[in-house]
Design goal:
mainly alpha
Length: about 70
């Protein structure tokens, strides 16, 4: 039987959320696509914390800031 670790569950859920966000962008479901991206970014940041991977944390902080600035200026 396959036993997933918590980080694996979060990682795959974050991936699914991000893919839904991309799909919503393609279908022009604004601003709900942005909300999905915020959730995905937060979850991927959490994965970075669980893995103690600073590169993953930094890239998702950058993504969060970029997305937030764009959202607030739209």
């Amino acid at each position: 039987m396959l036993k997933l670790k918590t980080v694996d569950i979060v990682k795959w859920f974050a991936t699914l959320v991000q893919l839904v966000g991309y799909g919503m962008t393609g279908l022009n479901y604004v601003p709900y696509n942005i909300y999905m991206f915020f959730i995905g970014i937060f979850l991927w940041f959490a994965v970075g914390v669980m893995w103690k991977d600073k590169a993953i944390m930094v890239v998702h902080v950058g993504a969060f800031i970029s997305l937030l600035v764009g959202y607030l200026n739209a």
